[in-house]
Amino acid sequence: MSEQQKLTVLLTGGSGVLGESLIDCLAEDFDLVCLARKSRIRHPRVEVLKGDICSPRLGLDVGDYEALLKRVDWVIHAAAVTRMDGDIDQIFSVNYLGTENVVNFVQQANVPLYHISTAFTHPCDYYEGVQAETPYEVAKRQAETLVRSAGIDVSIFRPSIIIGDSDSGHMPNFQGFHMTMGLMMSGVLPIVPCPPAGYIDLIARDVAARAIANALRQRLIGADYFLTSGPHGMACITSCSTKRNTPRTALSA
């Protein structure tokens, strides 16, 4: 792809667990602009703008915001509070109101949106004694409804539980799964109560990022996708439709 053909992509959440891997996958082939509230992004091919999705105009002044509207060809919204036990007000502010501000930008710029959600928005039957819905799930589900009703070109990506890099296992920030494993390894948590047929769906962060990047290279837009462990250990991108037996399509890394 030549320099003249490169899309300019705005990425939120670039300093996050998935965001870091997205930068690695996108920076070479796209002109990448990252919006960051606290800049931890140190990539030579990335332009970082100090902003905040929870603020009007994404925390930018009028001039910078208007200039960004004219430059951007595509938006990937990955910024989120991912703690299921986090502060309710913060979860709603970032995961819903922040998404609302991003959607406003997308509407004004008239560009497509990749909204990074979670597989936990999909309703399921919980076992007795398990909290039916967390504030994280509720806010993420509301955000999906928001982007789908906004009249924009959008695809929603729903990764399962994200773990470290597929090769090294590196993880910049430990999350719930890693904390649980740590408690088990230390002997603090000797057992994990679960049904005999239960299973955990994990996906390496770089594998999930490559699936999203490959979708962008193909300019896929309009469908919703689950990012989950495939039958051959590859990332699969699964179209979500009203049919339950939708075939899986693997996106090569």
Q: What is the CA-atom radius of gyration, in angstroms?
A: 18 Å
Question: Largest sheet, if any?
Answer: 9 strands, mixed
Structural class: alpha/beta
Q: What is the count of distinct domains?
A: 1
**Number of distinct beta strands:** 11
| Order of helix and strand elements from N to C terminus | EHEEHEHEHEEHEHEEE
What proportion of the residues is helical, as a percent range?
25-40%
Overall pLDDT metric: 82
Backbone shape? globular
State the CATH superfamily name.
Answer: NAD(P)-binding Rossmann-like Domain
Task: Describe the protein in words.
It is a single chain. By secondary structure, this protein is an alpha/beta fold. It has one domain: Rossmann fold. It is 32% helix and 20% strand. The chain contains 6 helices and 11 strands. The protein has helices at residues 17-26, 62-71, 88-109, 135-148, 176-186, 205-217; strands spanning 8-12, 31-36, 46-50, 74-77, 113-116, 154-159, 161-163, 202-204, 224-229, 235-240, 248-250. The strands form 2 sheets. Strands 3-2-1-4-5-6-9-10-11 form a 9-stranded mixed β-sheet, with helices on both faces. The chain has a two-stranded parallel sheet with strand order 7-8. β7 (161-163), α5 (176-186) and β8 (202-204) form a beta-alpha-beta unit. The longest helix is centred in the middle third of the chain and has 22 residues, at 88-109.
